[in-house]
Amino acid sequence: xxxxxxxxxxxxxxxxxxxxxxxxxxxxxxxxxxxxxxxxxxxxxxxxxxxxxxxxxxxxxxxxxxxxxxxxxxxxxxxxxxxxxxxxxxxxxxxxxxxxxxxxxxxxxxxxxxxxxxxxxxxxxxxxxxxxxxxxxxxxxxxxxxxxxxxxxxxxxxxxxxxxxxxxxxxx
Length: 172
Fold this sequence. Notes:
Number of strands: 0
Strand content: under 5%
CATH architecture: Up-down Bundle
Order of helices and strands: HHHHHHH
Shape: globular
Distance between the termini: 45 Å
Largest sheet: none
Number of helices: 7
CATH topology: Growth Hormone, Chain: A
CATH class: Mainly Alpha
């Protein structure tokens, strides 16, 4: 066995570990607490009468989504893009100033992540796109009702909270 057979795989493992470490650092630069605090100001809980509108098959699973994207800054950047897109809709029931503050926080997080996303552009954004398209379809099906927005809001909040926990290495 030559040194190339040993050194090349070891170098690839080190390179991958280095990239993962850099991605964790980038994700850690997001002001998660501020972002989540602004999100909480929009709406804290799902109203008891809205729970009956919850339809799992028309929503994405935040746990599965976060496991899929984990420390991939390109996909987390896409989550930020889609979050800003869905909250940027005129039909949401949240106070305009509070919604804009949250959207600006999401856009700023996306800007912080962008330089870290030096992956090939062939990375598929399909999982993120499908997730947010499901939520958009859910909102449309429910005529952008307050209950539909509360449910989408709770789903988004859970996703961002899980991403925050990933960035902290599970310390929270």
